[in-house]
Design a protein that fits this description.
Elements (H helix, E strand, L loop, with lengths): L11 E6 L16 E2 L2 E2 H10 L6 E6 L4 H10 L5 E6 L4 H9 L8 E4 L9 H14 L1 E7 L4 E5 L2 E6 L5 E10 H14 L6 H6 L6 E4 L10 H18 L14
Parallel strand pairs: 1-4, 1-6, 4-5, 7-11
Antiparallel strand pairs: 2-3, 6-10, 7-10, 8-9
Length: 252
Amino acid sequence: MPRPRQKKPGQVAVIVPAAGSGTRMGGTRKQFRRLGGLPLLLQTLLVFERHPDVHQIYLAAPADAVDVLRMELEADGLTKLRDVVAGGGTRQDSVHAALRVVPSDVEVVLVHDAVRPFVEANQLAVLIATARAEGGASLAIPVTDTLRRGHDEQFRETVSREHLYRMQTPQAFRREWLAKGHQHAERLGIQATDDVNLVQAIGCPVQIVPGSSINMKITTPADWDLATILWPHWEASHENRTAPPTDATPDA
């Protein structure tokens, strides 16, 4: 008796919201500053361009930069780039705008900060596999610092750090979970700081995938200084390195 054919896993898309003003950095929008000779945004997108488990890339950009960015990124060789859309007034609005153009047959959607270029390929592979199996997952790292409340410039009580995590991206979800989370938030006027919050709000569980302290979000001038120091070492140790695919993947 012939064995039943295994169903091929569905496509994986990544949404990168990059429409922010980057006001805390000052000057040029942080996502367009050059890191390692290339714009920070491009260095981040290349993580997904090179990863065998990612098939499609969607970018939410400043409205005045959509056409220029699309042409530049295509010229840079991003073969997985499917669309560049105008972002909204908040990160949440930008993700939702990009999600609207992600095809309904995509199985898993990742959401990733444009200013987090230090993502390990192996962590991405685990994240995608977990989202496929469980429906939702996010990179995160346990809080290790002492936490203490403050008021009127004085310290108050210490807060237990047990079971506390610092959230990172990418965050990965079944496409329908993420879509329902954003639709629910839009109906109720909810503004969340990340997509895990939106998916949890519709009753869907999200799994913890261990992240890395180097997966920093470049937000302030001090972050930028640290990133420029780290980049040469990161680039040298990750040159031409990709993770093996977690499963047989369909053609992009």
